[in-house]
Amino acid sequence: MFSLQTIFGQGKQFYALLEEAAVAAHDSTKALHAMLRDAGHQPALDAFKLARQRERAASDKIRHELVNSFITPIEREDIEALGSALYKIPKQVEKFADRYSMALRQLQGIDFAPRAAMLEKAADVVVEMVRALPAMKLDAMKSLSDRLRSIENEADRLMLELYRDIYSGRLDAQQMFLLKEFFEILEKAIDRCQEAGTVAYEIVLKNS
Fold first, then answer.
1. At a CB cut-off of 8 Å and minimum separation 6, what does 24 contact?
2. Within a 13 Å sphere around the CA of 182, how many CA atoms are in the beta-carbon half?
């Protein structure tokens, strides 16, 4: 049974739920960076699974509220798009962590931490962008979008360095394959952050 507050309220709960999803995504990237800084130990995966569970719970709540709410603060399609983009970040992070834990012996001596640091920074900016949504201030959101784009550009530069290592001739075929696969997963995770940031920026552009 629908409550009048849910039906006729201003729908501000969506901002809280989107922030909850963004924070869960950011927490997954922090866990990944911490894991890769301590690469000498077998990684624990609980933090990643917990972040995914929190993300799923937030996504489920968003879908539930979209069904039950008569009024939303922004267009329903935009809420769905941003929720979907945020959901993909910890999914990609967990994919890296799961595979890394299985290939740890083959990856000795390969430092993923600098790229993971870039991913954590990108996810942090995404949290700021989601938190800035209610104010609908275009200048502030554009500044955050520019920061996110700068992080993505730096990540692209680091990927170019990776390809120089791959084709340097000092790696065997297995190392070349693994190095390329794992860095591309990290690159895709950063792309997911950029996608979420783009949706947030376009929401403000549309509503400011």
1. 51, 52, 54, 55, 58, 90
2. 27
pTM of whole model > 0.90? no
56-112 pLDDT tens trace:
999 999 999 999 888 899 999 999 999 999 999 999 999 999 999 888 888 777 788
Give the chain's domains with CATH numbers.
Answer: 4-207 (1.20.58.220)
Report CA-CA distances (Å) from 69 to 109, 117, 175. Answer: 52, 38, 52
- Neighbouring CB atoms inside 10 A of 136's CB total 16
d(C-alpha 65, C-alpha 115), whole Å:
36
Residue 193 and residue 126 in contact, taking contact as beta carbons nearer than 8 Å: yes
The CA-based angle 87-98-27, given to 5 degrees, is 45
Of the candidates 32, 27, 34, the residue with the CA atom closest to the CA atom of residue 50: 27
The rounded distance, in Å, linking the Cα atoms of 127 and 196 is 10
Gap between the Cα atoms of 203 and 62, Å rounded: 17
**Alpha-carbon span 29 to 101, nearest angstrom:** 16
